[in-house]
């Protein structure tokens, strides 16, 4: 249970500093400090359990289907890291309390720091790969916010984005690696996986798994060539750097190597990949550190170098090297955290971090100076300090490499070389900053000693460097043994943590490094000049940014090239897809295209009609730039479709098509008023060729499909409709019964579509103001008054007649061709005639009805008819009918379907009239207000 | 007899028509009607979900005509889940609109419920032609909504959208005609019987119909290369409409899922679909990611992330296995809600930044810590970073991929995720960190918009916390989908199922 609280505490605690921050920075810092203190107290019991050899475990299910559970376990390695994370975290909080500037929001700062702390604690306590990954990515996310904390500076923003991209990419690789590991072992539980090393190493997926996991670890631990984000992350406030780059963020990568050491190590790929990367990073980092003039830049590259050292130790792949790696993790965390804090103090007191300006500080700040020098000496590996001991162990381990054969001299030499560089940059840190003459042009002068409580955290850590260096067996030994045993997941090798090992090879290497380093430093000016000449302008982070910018520009260009906003292109792609979809299966030759059914004889009239229709269709395409003519020819196609329906005995369809044709052509004619009468050719020839091919493919495809269907025998459920229309639906007109009864729900949907279309047109045009089409200087006139007295008079007489016809079609619809839809269209046509003959103004005066309401009542009536069947406990839209004898009129059939049909009728009338009125009003508004002229 | 299944259809239909009657009475009564009905949809949908979760497939025969002669409504786990999702999405979108966007044109409160009518109908119908009808309802209503607010960009994007989709509708009709021409029936379950027992000589026609349907649904879902309409339309629309449209692409995904598990199963005439879909899905992710990286505006970025999410969904679906479908169905609600939330958030951010709006360029105005925090959370969720649900969805997807396809799919999904991280971190940095140059602070934070945004983000967090029950449901749904005979039996009786 304790473990759960240790993880949750920082996350929950992160809520407090923003609240406390309102009371000031002190309050925020102290509330934040409570968290690691409490967590350390909670960690005592599990830590004792780990010492007792019975690690505590706690598990909670989260998403068992994906194998994601919450399993926490604190063994020796986790315990060691917990102490580092919480202990150093506590010191950082105390330090930051004095470090933060006035305009840094303390609440936000400490909240983010605690979030980050929680994520780190989560990583080390995870006994589950995927859960570890969750916390892993949380460290990337929270470090993004921490690095970008001072987001007004461009370096902070860029550093944050870079860190997130690099470590985020690593996290994704890690995810893939973990999933592979899960596939290999069948488990995500780390304690289980650690025991399955042999199975993993023998698996064919071992190398990809290893590569992916290493990618994650190396990006996080800033290994070459993914190191470049770390120096850029120095834009963070110094306490953040001190925390992230000593004990936490970058240590997550090496922690992972340590954690999975028993499962993945012990192979050639491991040795060469891990060892090689570590060595490269070690030397490269040490070399680069020497040439940084920025105090934090030097520390950043030295961090990279030391991480390389740790990685190299894991790569050497002997138990003793692993022990040395763990030891160096501890030592590096302590001296590097104190060095960063010292750098922060110097920055704070002098206002700059440029080592060419800050010189001779010792006399201004003797206490801080002494502490920093001791820590830097530990970094250099000076005897009697902790850095010396782990470095000696490292030197000793470089000799045990039989794998390299005749090249086995290489590693000790490279290690000594890196040692020389490390001494040189440490010497530079000490000598440049604290001696080397007087300060040059400091922003803050003279510098003072830092506040006592700012120095205290540094002193605590430097004290540890000393104590561990002098009395290793009394201090660090039990922790080291515990953690190393957990890393090795087996017995510990024999090692001796004595300060003096005798005059042996490692000691000689240390001596060479020491004197070589000092010599190198003394010759630094010549070296700097050489370096500047050789490597001027080669900066990995600049390269990265160039790549990212190229990538973004490339993405932008690619997107714009694909999505160029052309409707023609979208339509062409759609038609291409459709053409392929139809033609490819038909051409695949699974069976013959034509079926077995014989083709009926073609009579001359039908043939003529078909030819006419084709001609009209072609003519429409031919005249498509002259819109009026194209529209008229198009109506010929429509009328021929009507005749086709008549030819094949579908009077209902013919009637409907006829009425629809009339209404749409009339509305289109009205709309044409606003368009240019002619259109210039806009497409180049190749595009028209493409369009022709597409048209042939799609049209031909449809034709072929139709041919294939019509020549094949088909099953159909249509017979049911014929049989049940009269007895079940109460109507002899099967088409109408299908529309209002069998499939009445479709009709309800379709009249809704009509209604929405009318509303959408209204909404589009209601406030729109369009100029009439004036492409070639010809502006058609819009008539508001009637043209012809005769026409107007006749249409007025015609109106009642037309309405009678509509009613007639409506009433007989259920049993003979007709119905609400057709009747509605006829009514609409009659009303349109009034507009045409008598003008808008007059017609609007006569017709006060609000068309919106007609539409709404129509659909509501249809829906209500459907609802009525609920009263009789029948499904929606169940129809009922009956025959009644009425006096005078005689027998009459009443069906609920007719009510439904009435709804259809009203909707159709309302829709057509609303569209018409909208178009009419649009033109009147545009011309009358004159706004568009 | 239980009529609850009709409620998700009738409530919005009646609300839309009542609001049409109320057109001249100002926005007050209309708002009330829309809010009440949309709010009522949620308990109704949950009721139906509980029923479907028993494993029962509910059949409702409209007009009391037996299947396959009348139109069937079919409620199974999938449709119930999507009904709940639609209701969960619709309410915040509508509330957000009451911040004032609903008054920027006529008839918002008519079109909004009718849009829901179309979406719910598409999810519930068991009839292929009826699906077409609901696609039309959806299309026309969405066209009206997309134009809402007016302006050149909206009209242009809306025109492209409607022209493309009208062609799509015609193709849909051709496909339906082909199927009806040989099978003589429109009921999905009845078609399933026909297609699984059809004679060999019908195969080319069935395959053509399958691919044509895929084309039509891919257009709806905005799958490459038929996605070109989406970024313009979504980024031009007002925020509540863009948020509601987050479900629209999912209707296309739904139709693909339904068609190729039931009507034209990939084990039969839909085999081509199973062959084409994985590549198309991955290309969709890749191009969507490129679009997100190159976006100049936040809403365009989000729109491309919608494209990415569609690709991710289809990557899972294209496996046509229980784990693959489970992953997709788990991911679907999450990605829908979070992209919707992001569209609303973008409106809030744009409102604060004055004239610059959602352009990804620096201004002197910082939209504020609250919006910054919300954006950070939403970015994590939409990029699929831990610990939010997007991560779990991707995890399920990656786990579902069988070894042969794993290298491709893993690479594309993971690199696509990285692109999203890079794009979002750049956008966030420009919007919240790089406060420089000129600029005048915009309006405050409209409370309805803010509430809705927070609600949608909270829902994605809730989906993460209750990931286990959701996955269980998704798994049961996937299992049900891959046993189409259960649906056939439920619709046409036990005899037909055999």
Automatic annotation (TrEMBL), chain A:
Residues 686-771 form the MrpA C-terminal/MbhE domain. Residues 791-914 form the Na+/H+ antiporter MnhB subunit-related protein domain. GO terms for biological process: monoatomic ion transport. Residues 68-110 form the NADH-Ubiquinone oxidoreductase (complex I) chain 5 N-terminal domain. Residues 126-400 form the NADH:quinone oxidoreductase/Mrp antiporter transmembrane domain. InterPro entries: CPA3_Na-H_Antiporter_A, MnhB, MrpA_C/MbhD, MrpA_C/MbhE, ND/Mrp_TM, Proton_antipo_N. The chain crosses the membrane at residues 30-56, 77-101, 107-125, 132-150, 162-184, 205-224, 270-291, 298-316, 322-346, 367-389, 401-425, 453-483, 503-521, 571-593, 605-623, 628-648, 654-676, 692-710, 751-778, 790-810, 822-842, 854-872, 902-922. GO terms for cellular component: plasma membrane. Residues 612-677 form the MrpA C-terminal/MbhD domain. Keywords: Antiport, Cell membrane, Ion transport, Membrane, Transmembrane, Transmembrane helix, Transport. It is a multi-pass membrane protein. It comes from the Bacteria. It is found in: Cell membrane; Membrane. GO terms for molecular function: antiporter activity. This is Multicomponent K+:H+ antiporter subunit A.
TrEMBL record, chain B:
Keywords: Cell membrane, Membrane, Transmembrane, Transmembrane helix. Its main location: membrane. The keyword Heme does not apply. Residues 126-415 form the NADH:quinone oxidoreductase/Mrp antiporter transmembrane domain. GO terms for biological process: ATP synthesis coupled electron transport. It is a multi-pass membrane protein. InterPro entries: CPA3_Na-H_Antiporter_D, NADH_UbQ_OxRdtase, ND/Mrp_TM. The chain crosses the membrane at residues 6-23, 32-50, 70-96, 108-125, 131-150, 162-185, 205-226, 233-256, 276-294, 301-322, 328-349, 370-388, 408-433, 445-468. GO terms for molecular function: NADH dehydrogenase (ubiquinone) activity. One of its GO terms (cellular component) is plasma membrane. It comes from the Bacteria. It is found in: Cell membrane; Membrane. Belongs to the CPA3 antiporters (TC 2.A.63) subunit D family. NCBIfam families: PRK12666.1 (NF009309). This is Multicomponent K+:H+ antiporter subunit D. The lineage of its organism: Bacteria, Pseudomonadati, Thermodesulfobacteriota, Desulfobulbia, Desulfobulbales.
């Amino acid at each position: 249970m304790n473990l759960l609280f240790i993880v949750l505490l920082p996350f929950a605690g992160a809520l407090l500093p923003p609240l406390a921050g309102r009371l000031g920075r002190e309050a925020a810092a102290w509330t934040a400090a409570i968290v690691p203190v409490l967590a350390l107290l909670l960690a005592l019991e599990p830590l004792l359990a780990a010492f007792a050899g019975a690690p505590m475990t706690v598990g909670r299910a989260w998403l068992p289907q994906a194998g994601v559970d919450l399993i926490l376990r604190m063994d020796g390695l986790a315990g060691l890291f917990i102490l580092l994370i919480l202990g150093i975290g506590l010191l950082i909080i105390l330090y930051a309390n004095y470090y933060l500037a006035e305009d840094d929001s303390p609440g936000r700062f400490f909240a983010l720091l605690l979030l980050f702390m929680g994520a780190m604690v989560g990583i080390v306590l995870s006994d589950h790969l995927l859960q570890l990954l969750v916390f892993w990515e949380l460290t990337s996310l929270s470090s993004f916010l921490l690095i970008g904390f001072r987001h007004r500076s461009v370096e902070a923003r860029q550093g944050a984005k870079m860190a997130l991209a690099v470590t985020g990419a690593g996290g994704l690789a890690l995810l893939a690696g973990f999933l592979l590991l899960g596939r290999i072992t069948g488990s995500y539980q780390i304690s289980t996986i650690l025991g399955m090393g042999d199975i993993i190493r023998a698996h064919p997926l071992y190398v990809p798994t290893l590569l992916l996991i290493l990618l994650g670890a190396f990006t996080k631990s800033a290994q070459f060539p993914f190191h470049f984000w770390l120096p850029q992350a120095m834009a963070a406030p110094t306490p953040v750097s001190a925390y992230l780059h000593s004990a936490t963020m970058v240590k997550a990568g090496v922690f992972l190597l340590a954690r999975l050491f028993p499962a993945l190590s012990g192979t050639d790929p491991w040795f060469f990949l891990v060892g090689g990367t570590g060595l490269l990073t070690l030397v490269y980092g040490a070399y680069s550190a020497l040439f940084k003039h920025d105090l934090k830049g030097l520390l950043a590259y030295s961090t990279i170098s030391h991480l390389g050292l740790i990685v190299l130790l894991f790569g050497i792949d002997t138990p003793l090297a692993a022990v040395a790696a763990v030891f160096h993790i501890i030592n590096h965390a302590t001296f590097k955290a104190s060095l960063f804090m010292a750098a922060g103090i110097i920055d704070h007191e002098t206002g700059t971090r440029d080592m060419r300006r800050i010189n001779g500080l010792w006399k201004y700040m003797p206490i801080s100076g002494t502490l920093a020098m001791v820590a830097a000496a530990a970094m250099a590996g000076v005897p009697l300090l902790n850095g010396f001991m782990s470095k000696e162990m490292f030197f000793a381990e470089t000799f045990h490499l039989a794998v390299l054969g005749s090249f086995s001299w290489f590693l000790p030499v490279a290690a000594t070389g890196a040692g020389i560089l490390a001494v040189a940059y440490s010497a530079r840190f000490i000598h440049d900053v604290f001696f080397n003459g007087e300060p040059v042009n400091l922003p803050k002068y003279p510098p003072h000693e830092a506040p006592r409580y700012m120095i205290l955290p540094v002193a605590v850590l430097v004290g540890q460097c000393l104590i561990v260096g002098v009395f290793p067996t009394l201090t660090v030994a039990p922790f080291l043994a515990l953690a190393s045993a957990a890393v090795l997941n087996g017995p510990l090798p024999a090692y001796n943590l004595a300060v003096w090992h005798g005059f042996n090879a490692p000691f000689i290497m240390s001596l060479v490094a020491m004197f070589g380093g000092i010599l190198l430093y003394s010759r630094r000016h010549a070296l700097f000049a050489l370096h500047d000449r050789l490597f001027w302008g080669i900066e990995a982070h600049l390269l990265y940014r160039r790549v990212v910018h190229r990538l973004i520009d490339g993405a932008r260009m690619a997107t714009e090239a694909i999505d160029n906003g052309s409707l023609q292109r979208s339509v062409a792609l759609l038609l291409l897809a459709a053409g392929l979809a139809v033609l490819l299966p038909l051409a695949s030759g699974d069976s013959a295209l034509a079926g077995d059914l014989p083709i009926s004889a073609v009579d001359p009239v039908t043939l003529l009609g078909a030819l006419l229709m084709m001609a009209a269709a072609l003519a429409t395409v031919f005249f498509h730039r002259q819109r009026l003519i194209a529209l008229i020819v198009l109506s010929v196609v429509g009328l021929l479709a009507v005749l086709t329906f008549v030819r094949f005995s579908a009077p209902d369809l013919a009637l409907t098509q006829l009425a629809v044709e009339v209404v749409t052509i009339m509305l289109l004619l009205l709309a044409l008023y606003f368009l240019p009468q002619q259109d210039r050719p806009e497409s180049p020839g190749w595009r028209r060729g493409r369009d022709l091919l597409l048209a042939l493919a799609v049209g031909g495809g449809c034709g072929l499909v139709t041919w294939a269907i019509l020549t094949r025998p088909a099953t159909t459920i249509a017979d049911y409709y014929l049989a049940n229309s009269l007895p079940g639906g109460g109507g002899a007109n099967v088409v109408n019964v299908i529309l209002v009864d069998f499939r009445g729900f479709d009709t309800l949907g379709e009249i809704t579509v009509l209604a929405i279309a009318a509303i959408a047109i209204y909404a589009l045009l209601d406030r729109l103001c369009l100029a009439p089409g004036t492409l070639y200087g010809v502006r058609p006139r819009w008539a508001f008054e009637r043209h012809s007295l005769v026409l107007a008079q006749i249409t007025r007489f015609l109106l009642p007649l037309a309405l009678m016809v509509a009613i007639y079609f409506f009433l007989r619809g259920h049993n003979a061709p007709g119905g609400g839809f057709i009747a509605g269209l006829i009514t609409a046509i009659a009303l349109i005639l009034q507009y045409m003959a008598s003008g808008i103004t007059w017609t609007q005066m006569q017709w006060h009805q609000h068309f919106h309401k007609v539409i709404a009542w129509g659909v509501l009536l249809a829906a209500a008819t459907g609802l009525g069947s609920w009263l009789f406990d029948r499904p929606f839209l169940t129809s009922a009918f009956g025959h009644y004898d009425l006096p005078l009129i005689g027998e009459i059939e009443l069906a609920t379907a007719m009510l439904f049909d009435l709804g259809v009728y009203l909707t159709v009338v309302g829709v057509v009239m609303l569209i018409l009125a909208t178009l009419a009003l649009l033109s009147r508004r545009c011309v009358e207000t004159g706004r568009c002229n | 007899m239980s009529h609850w299944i009709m409620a998700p259809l009738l409530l919005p239909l009646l609300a839309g028509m009542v609001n049409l009657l109320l057109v001249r009475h100002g926005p007050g009564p209309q708002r009330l009607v829309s809010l009440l009905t949309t709010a009522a949809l949620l308990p109704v949908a949950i009721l139906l979900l509980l029923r479907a979760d028993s494993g029962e497939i509910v059949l409702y025969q409209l007009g009391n005509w037996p299947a396959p002669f009348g139109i069937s409504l079919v409620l199974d786990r999938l449709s119930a889940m999507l009904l709940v999702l639609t209701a969960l999405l619709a309410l915040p979108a509508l509330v957000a609109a009451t911040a004032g966007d609903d008054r920027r044109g006529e008839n918002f409160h008519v079109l909004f419920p009718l849009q829901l009518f179309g979406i719910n109908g598409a999810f519930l119908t068991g009839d292929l032609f009826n699906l077409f009808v609901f696609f039309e309802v959806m299309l026309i209503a969405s066209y009206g909504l997309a134009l809402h607010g007016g302006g050149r960009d909206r009209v242009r994007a809306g025109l492209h959208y409607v022209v493309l989709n009208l062609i799509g509708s015609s193709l849909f009709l051709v496909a339906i005609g082909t199927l009806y021409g040989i099978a003589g029936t429109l009921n999905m379950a009845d078609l399933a019987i026909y297609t699984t027992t059809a004679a060999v000589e019908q195969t080319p026609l069935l395959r053509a119909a399958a691919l044509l349907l895929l084309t039509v649904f891919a257009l709806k879902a905005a799958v490459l290369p038929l996605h070109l309409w989406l970024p313009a339309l979504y980024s031009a629309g007002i925020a509540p409409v863009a948020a509601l449209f987050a479900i629209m692409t999912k209707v296309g995904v739904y139709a693909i899922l339904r068609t190729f598990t039931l009507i034209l199963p990939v084990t039969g005439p839909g085999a081509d679909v199973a062959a084409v879909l994985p590549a198309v899905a991955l290309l969709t992710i890749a191009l969507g990611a490129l679009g997100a990286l190159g976006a100049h505006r936040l809403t365009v970025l989000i729109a491309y992330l919608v494209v990415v999410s569609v690709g991710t969904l289809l990557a899972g679906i294209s496996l046509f296995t229980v784990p693959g479908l489970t992953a997709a169905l788990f991911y679907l609600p999450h990605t829908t809600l979070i992209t919707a939330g992001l569209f609303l958030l973008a409106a809030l951010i744009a409102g604060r930044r004055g004239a610059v709006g959602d352009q990804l360029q620096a201004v002197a105005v910082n939209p504020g810590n609250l919006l910054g925090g919300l954006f950070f959370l939403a970015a994590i969720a939409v990029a699929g970073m831990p610990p939010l649900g997007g991560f779990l969805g991707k995890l399920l997807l990656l786990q579902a991929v069988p070894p042969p396809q794993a290298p491709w799919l893993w690479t594309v999904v993971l690199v696509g995720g990285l692109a999203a991280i890079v794009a979002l971190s750049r956008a966030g940095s420009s919007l919240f960190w790089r406060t420089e140059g000129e600029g005048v602070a915009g309006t405050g934070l409209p409370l309805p918009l803010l509430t809705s945004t927070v609600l949608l983000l909270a829902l994605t967090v809730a989906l993460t916390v209750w990931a286990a029950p959701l996955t269980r449901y998704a798994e049961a749904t996937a299992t049900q989908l891959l046993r189409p005979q259960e649906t056939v039996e439920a619709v046409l009786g036990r005899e037909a199922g055999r």
